Amino acid sequence: MSIKTLSRLRDLRLGGMAQHLEQQLTQPGTYNDLSFTDRLDLMLDHELLSRDHRKQERLIRQAKLKLHASVPEIDYAHPL
After folding, report:
1. What percent of the chain lies above the pLDDT cut of 90?
2. Residues 6 or more apart from 17 whose CB is under 8 A from it?
């Protein structure tokens, strides 16, 4: 059942949900207390986060920025 379901999720391009379902299957005790809809909500949240992350990476690549920096790397100290 799980392999078929994972395959169908990937065929539907729902890789984030498939990844989270795999996580749920490898950690069965962690999710036992959650209802079906709560587990489905977690999988949907993971899919949305995965899509947002891929979109952000794609837009950064397409921007062809000369420097690759992140917010924590910015030095806000002004030299005197």
Report:
1. 52
2. 9, 43, 44, 46, 47
pTM for the full predicted model: 0.73
**Residue 37, in any domain of the structure:** yes
Q: Are 15 and 48 in contact (CB under 8 A)?
A: no
What is the dihedral sign for C-alpha 17, 22, 23, 24?
positive
In contact, 30 and 38? CB cutoff 8 Å:
no
Q: Is 24 a domain residue?
A: yes
Closest alpha carbon to 47 in 13, 24, 2? 13
Find where tokens 């917010």 sit.
Answer: 71
